[in-house]
Specification:
By secondary structure, this protein is an alpha/beta fold. The chain has 14 helices and 8 strands.
Length: 318
């Protein structure tokens, strides 16, 4: 990726920042104010974790708004690496113009240039991919990526960009111990062969692989993740127990093992951060490489769990 700063091994995820449609309260059951979030931003920047992943659709601008206020207050415009997204399903709010949605993101975030701009999902590869080209030509966007695209859609997007001398710099898909379809489908291999950074979101399955939740300690009712994960927590207990056991050998928690697994796979995990300790945990986990034996053991138990975590906005990649 074409960034001036050193890329960290993990990205800080701001999906759960801000309330409203597709916001932290509805999806995660969080109710975080900026007094809660400011120290998270500050500590991350101090630790060199300056890559922030957000989207216009997260809280319909609320996530970008919060992140933007912190960037302005700390005069961090030149220090942050910003990853944000164009979501086709809400394009009508911006007169069906990718350029207008990108400009609105810049205004909310307090930045002049977006380091990495994504097409959030493949609603229409032929329709939307060409709109990335003028953003690249003007310099408003440094790099572009596609999210929730399968291999054929990724290749087609790359072809469209290639006709004008550009290319995809990054792919972002749901990728975790419980959902490795981007690997089995050949997407990871394609990314390696074409110098494309693979961003993995939901590496910890919104906390289901953190070791914090089990049948005795389920997610609080009332959120989307409680609805999805509480019914399968019993199936995950053997896996999370193994994550805790492996973690003891490395001085890591179960959640950190999930992050270390992703880093060890050669991908860049996006870690949702709602507490300062999440930042500290991510920084430590990113420095650990698991052994092949440990990786195989975890993946075997994950397959044994037979849990489908594909969500309504995405698809299986193979």
């Amino acid at each position: 990726m074409d960034t001036d700063e050193r890329m960290p091994k993990v990205a800080m995820g701001a999906w759960s920042w801000g309330a409203g449609v597709a916001g932290g309260d509805q999806v995660f059951g969080n109710h975080l104010g900026e007094s809660d979030l400011q120290p998270i931003f500050d500590v991350a920047m101090e630790r060199g974790l300056n890559l922030w992943d957000t989207a216009t659709v997260y809280g319909m601008g609320a996530s970008e708004d919060s992140l933007g206020r912190f960037i302005r207050q700390g005069n961090k415009k030149d220090a942050v690496i910003i990853s944000t997204k164009f979501t086709p399903q809400i394009a009508g709010m911006y007169e069906d113009s990718m350029a207008k949605m990108a400009e609105a993101s810049c205004e909310r975030l307090g930045i002049d240039v977006i380091d990495l701009y994504w097409i959030h999902n493949p609603a229409d590869v032929e329709r939307w991919t060409p709109e990335l080209i003028p953003l690249l030509q003007s310099g408003k966007v440094k790099n572009v990526g596609v999210s929730n695209h399968n291999l054929s859609e990724i290749k087609r997007a790359n072809e469209i960009l290639g006709e004008q001398g550009f290319r995809i710099s990054a792919v972002q898909n749901h990728f975790s111990l419980l959902n490795r379809s981007s690997e089995s489908s050949g997407i990871l291999d394609y990314c390696r062969e074409n110098d494309i950074t693979f961003f993995a979101y939901m590496v910890l399955e919104q906390g289901a692989l953190s070791g914090k939740y089990d049948t005795k300690h389920p997610f609080p009712e009332g959120s989307d993740r409680a609805r999805i994960y509480n019914p399968v927590l019993a199936q995950l207990e053997e896996l999370t127990a193994a994550m805790e056991e492996i973690g003891k050998k490395h001085g890591l928690s179960a959640a950190q093992v999930g992050t270390a697994w992703a880093v060890s796979k050669g991908v860049l995990p996006i870690i949702g951060v709602t507490k300062v300790r999440h930042v500290e945990d991510a920084a430590k986990a990113a420095s650990v490489i698991l052994s092949a034996e440990e990786m195989n053991h975890l993946e075997t138990l994950a397959d044994k769990a037979e849990v489908n975590t594909i969500r309504e906005w995405e698809k299986k990649m193979d």
